[in-house]
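Re: Re: ligand-bound prediction request (bumping)

Still looking for help on this. To restate: I need the protein modeled with adenosine-5'-diphosphate bound, output as structure tokens. Inputs repeated here so nobody has to scroll up.
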Amino acid sequence: MSTSKSTNVHWHEGNLTREERWGSMGTRGGTLWFTGLSASGKSTIASALEQVLVQRGVPSYRLDGDNIRHGLNKNLGFSAEDRAENIRRIGEVAKLFADGGSVALTSFISPYRADRDQCRALHAEAGLPFIEVFVDAPIEVCEERDPKGLYKKARAGEIRGFTGIDDPYEAPTKPELVLKTGEHSLEQCVDACIEAIEKQLGVRVPAVTG
Ligand code: ADP
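Reply:
Sorry for the wait, this slipped through. Here it is.
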């Protein structure tokens, strides 16, 4: 699946280095990979963080699970194979955004460790920073929130293979950042991400002015 089907394709180097590109933008790129159960808070945090970053002049772009399944990944379902291909494509797209100088924010359940590790390796090979953010809320809390009514449907047997109910979630073993959304507010979670972006990506996030 991840092997190339095409032959006679050759990498064409551009005329710019990454440092020249980032230097002209005055920033640095990288990826924050949000992973966690459905309703743990990935999309809520990524959306709030994207807003704060862009308002403060830091290029950022959010890749959201459901949104990407409307377009790029509309031909994929939720089998283990399709989930793996879903994540592989997102890893590649996030890498392009990061290389382009944006802080890419991905919010996907991404339940399998091996798939996330593959995205991490992809970034490492390209010399790009990758921050795995474990959005860690107990399933009871997620099920209680259930903003899209999905747990209810899964419990009723209307959705099969739902992560945390009848499909596994493999928690990260060494995430760069853990956000306990059952204990900390959205603002606290966003602040923790900004701190990680400054320290681990080397991006300066200016304070709000005015
Ligand atoms: P996911 O993207 O992980 O499926 P969502 O962001 O769609 O989750 O939903 C998370 C729900 O939890 C939202 O209704 C959000 O308002 C709520 N919530 C409560 N506390 C927090 C928090 N600290 N961080 C993020 N979301 C929170």
